[in-house]
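### Sample
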Amino acid sequence: MSLDKEGPTVVHQKPGHLQTIFGLPPDEVVEHTYSCALERSFLYHGRMYVSLWHICFYSNIFSKQIKVELPLRDIDEITKGQLAVINPAITIFLRTGAGGHGVPSLACSDGRVRYIFASFWNRNHTVRALEQAVKNFHTMIEAEKQEHARSALRALSGSRNNSMEIDVPEECADLTGLPQPFVKEEVLVSVFDGTFPCTADQFFNNLISDDSTYTAEYRTARQDKDINLGQWHLADEYDGQVRELNCKSMCHSLMCPPYSAITEWQHTVLSANKTDLVFETVQQVHDVPFGSYFEIHCRWSVKTIDSSSCSVGISAGAHFKKWCIMQSKIKSGAVDE
């Protein structure tokens, strides 16, 4: 059997309430849960579940199942109310044109719809938590848009000399004009500090220049295949030069297929006096579980000490473009790999 035809490995996660009751994706987990009741003709007592993407409610009273699924993106307002003197309530308004899934909503005169929940142990605490969940959702969505724009910009720069066309989102227009950081500084963790028997200029010429065969030899020694390394070229978006590497890389993790297609964008800056070199890479793995959720960022900092030596510092880390359940395992595995 050819290794090329092996598909990605599927990771099975034990389903939680959001999966067994509401059929939501396996990477959606409960962040908060509250005992409460849904107000209809009378109060249906049950539990509210809050995730990064939804507010859900489930009740099973007298064998009557009640389900409500409210996407956070559709929530327009959350207000405090009162069903009775001793029963403070929370009303969740959905924007005009939106509707929750499950039990029909209550209509409002302004075109919005609403759901009313009561019987909370601590109504004020729950309101603050729900408002924060909505705020966090919009912050997360905006961050994902920016990350998508930066990834597209990096791909555009790395492939500029290739014939392939890159679909660049409109958000990229806001990122052009000023040099952009190539890697995420905050995710980098030091993995090596030492000296090499060469200068920074010699390091560049011998290991990563267009004339060097080191990258191809290194990848071949790893038993990687289908290696395609582009040429260094200038990019308006970044200082220095960029290029793109594509190959099928051998993967040693049990979660991955034997070979995974990867794209690695590379960036280098050599100082004018050729004594300081920065070499950065951003790697996207395409055939592994949650591969689209994260990138591997790496930086080599090389400084000439004298005519025959230089200091080399290497740092690496996993940058997550969106949250996933395997985040801690991926972070540790990325540094090890």
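The longest strand covers residues 294-306. This sample (VASt domain-containing protein) is used throughout the tutorial notebook.
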